[in-house]
Specification:
Largest sheet: 7 strands, antiparallel
Helix content: 25-40%
Shape: globular
CATH superfamily of the largest domain: Methylglyoxal synthase-like domain
Number of domains: 8
Strand content: 15-25%
Distance between the termini: 43 Å
CATH architecture of the largest domain: 3-Layer(aba) Sandwich
Structural class: alpha/beta
Strand order of the largest sheet: 14-13-10-11-12-15-16
Amino acid sequence: MPLDKSIESVLVIGSGPIVIGQACEFDYSGTQACRVLKSEGIRVILINSNPATIMTDPEFADATYIEPITPEVIERIMEKEKPSAVLATLGGQTALNAAMALNERGAFEKFGCKLIGANIDAIKRGEDREIFKSIVSSVGGESAKSAICHTMSDCLAAVKTLNYPVVVRPSFTMGGLGSGIAFNENDLQQIAGAGLRHSPTTEVLLEESIIGWKEYELEVMRDHMDNVVIVCSIENLDPMGVHTGDSITVAPAMTLTDVEYQKLRDLSISIIREVGVATGGCNIQFAVNPVDGRIIVIEMNPRVSRSSALASKATGFPIAKIATKLAIGYTLDEIENDITKSTPASFEPALDYVVVKVPRFAFEKFPEADTRLTTTMKSVGEAMAIGRSFPEALQKALRSIEKAGYIFDWEDANLPNLMKLMQTPTENRLQQVQKALYLGATIEEVYNATKIDHWFLQQIEIINQMARQLQSKGELTKELLRAAKQLGFSDLQIAGLRKVGVNEIFELRKKFQLHPVYKTVDTCAGEFAALTPYYYSSYDEETEVLSRTKEAVIILGSGPNRIGQGIEFDYSCVHASFALRQAGYETIMINCNPETVSTDYDTSDRLYFEPLTLEDVLEIIAAESAAGPVLGVIAQLGGQTPLGLARGLKDAGINILGTSPDAIDLAEDRGSFGKILQENQLRAPEFGMANSFEEAAQIAEKIGYPVLVRPSYVLGGRGMEIVYDPESLGGFIKAATAITPNHPVLIDKFLDDAIEIDVDALYDGKELYLAGVMEHIEEAGIHSGDSACVLPAISLDKNQLGEIRTATEKIAKGVDVRGLINIQFAVTTNPQKLYVLEANPRASRTVPFVAKATGIALAKAAALISMGKDISDLRKENLLPKTGDGIANGVSVKEAVLPWNRFRRIDGTGVDSVLGPEMKSTGEVMGISSNFGMAFAKSQTSAFGPLPKSGAVFISLSERDKDAGWRSARDLSELNFKIFSTQGTHDYLARKGVESELVRKNSDEINDRLSANDVITKGLVQLVINTPLGRGSRQDGWLIRSAAVSRAVPCITTIPGFRAAVSGITALQSADFEIKSLQEWMRK
């Protein structure tokens, strides 16, 4: 049945900011949806609050609303745009929950609009634990014994029947938020309490424990004519007990018998039919008892999920694209397979290779956090690899993670300690398993400790056997080297085992003419010809790389998402590919992140799904150079990962397009960069390097406190601290025990109370285009990735902006930039001075935000400059304004989204939510309005911390913040807010004539007065202002902040944040949100 002609326009609901449990896979699925709808002539209306996404580019929708994803805002868009239908199955749990709320408010009837992709009843049947359980039973399946609970007393009663341990699963949450395994009553109080708070329906499911069972997922699609396909089976290497997003997963499933697989398949088909997902995809999870084969259905997602993105990339079957076509009326047999162009989508994909996904974690950013892996998802990204065998795909995936300790090694270790450690799932468990097997543990012993299937352990033992062979003194023959490469060993690993330099192994391979060949992901195991060049490497016989005549440009992607390097960099890579394809070049993308738009097979002309290591990238360049002309490599758009490869590529004779590695090194090296600043009469904060506490104390004394101290051997703000006195400095030096002459400590003058400025600009060697001057809302000392920022800057006058422009041009010229440069400045107010903090001659994480705020596609322009175009050319081509610099449309605020609710300490208490110089945010949102207050208020709503219009606020200011903060407290009082405060703040406010109700500190003796925590946990306040003293996590402050996080009360920890919140509340009291599409803002 062809296109449903009644659908003239569709409102697509996006997934909002990147958070743990809901990452950029929904940008990938949403972008595909928008492209499909537009190609069918349907008007596309989009709402998404995340500016770092490709889908929010104005070219992908007819009306793009970067607005908070709340039912109230969506209703206003529905009223204005009058869509025929709403598509909510491609925006994760956020979109699904929004659709449910719209239905409850009667919005679909009110605006004469229908929900497509999955109807409300199907969503309820899939998401409501009790209804789903009865459906499973009705089709002959089995669920774990369970009880639905709405209160803690329900939970305590249920556990008497179920017995400990029990699994706690809240309804309608994503990424297992609020879930966990309770082994005793204390655990239950803690986990179920959080689960009841996180569930929008205050509902949790308690289940009998099936920890240690094998876990599988099937990705299923169905059309309205009842055709069903199983796209992919996925097996978790980790047994039940670890969230599937935190587990290493393998496709296709490896350890199922055909009979077991057919049972799962039959159950999946019956479940999708009974639930009623009639036009789209869903994901169904199963547990299988390894002892007796008993199958339990765990849950389903009646929408496109994280696993859908993995299944799409693993098979080449574009689930989101096909789900969108099904939603607008097509059937599976009417949709052509893009890759073969000769088979329909009703053909189930077949794989003649193995795919492995490995998650990436960021526990180093949260040193207090419990690192045990449970049913609450904690990973921040993932890498995927494809190989001809499981060992090959696994080793490629591990090196794709780019994190120390992930790649297998064969150094000595304590075996009894490893056996003990591996009993608890953590991010390094697989490495513990591999090393224990290498050191003599038996497969049975490791199985008993971990319940990882025997087959996987045997495969790891095969890798270890090869390592033993490589270690032996014998000759490294071509056959042995080939066998090692076929098991996924890198040159680096082989060199380590042979105790030789990595170059020696590379030269030996060259001598043997031993190089990988590239195979095609074709959806059909070679049965039909593949017309889309989507490649993976293997040490096999024949290559499938097609020859070409067009000049090609290779773009290096950014690898797995992590804190500090996320979707913003993928955005720039995708834009480069779009711009260069349009300019007539063949584009070749190398990346290993299955969640991204860059790894969609039709983003670039060719896609290599490969690790971003020097060895892997050089081999791809060699293969592509043999296929046709290669102009060079773009390394400045994907963040630190490709930048780290640029020098090695240049040394290997590869042409680096755009800013040269020498220029990048110049900006990184303090001495060289300091010279550029000196030559141009530009100021930088004073700094010094210390090898001991004595030296550090002398430098700090000379520079003057406060100082910013950090180890010299870490990236991305790791280990940075602001210290205000010699005592704190001593504490820092003592903690950083690795300080040696090789690892000195850097000490910078910290510009207290300075305004931090972020600048993005383009430079072509002659002319500067100043794209945006952003002002950080938080003071200097908060990592730029965690600070809210506003464009245009609201505190700078014309002269200061002129000074910033001049300084930017001098630095861009001095460093010799060709393309993008990001510079961070600080402006002190008394006396007024401009300081240069750092310069990064590459794409920054603010590029997408500046592009959306000004309407200029910066990354596209940067890619063309790297190919030799001038800014004057780009002005003529309307890619940049005809004259002048970037001008913001309205006022835009970018706010960081922080994952405090995901992490707890071992004892179950929350981690501290104080911001500092180390980046901790996973994503961002944007608020756009005609004034700062409203733009800031929108950004807070989008970042899950909506500002209250009325009510009460708790205020506790540190001694040094009282003078700076009391006026904001007075303003809140004048806005009719009741103020609760602790003794010191209460007394200070009283002296200033500001009334507040005194509450006792949590550490004070208990009396009949409410404590600071009481007013938060009892729901008496709608906003918390708590500024800590220095960085020290004093117990009182920490208790206040963690109570606010656990009760989802907005908590602000800085004075500038407090001031901005008052501006936002003032704006909210006088008007509603102003709702305008980006296209309308750009037409102004």
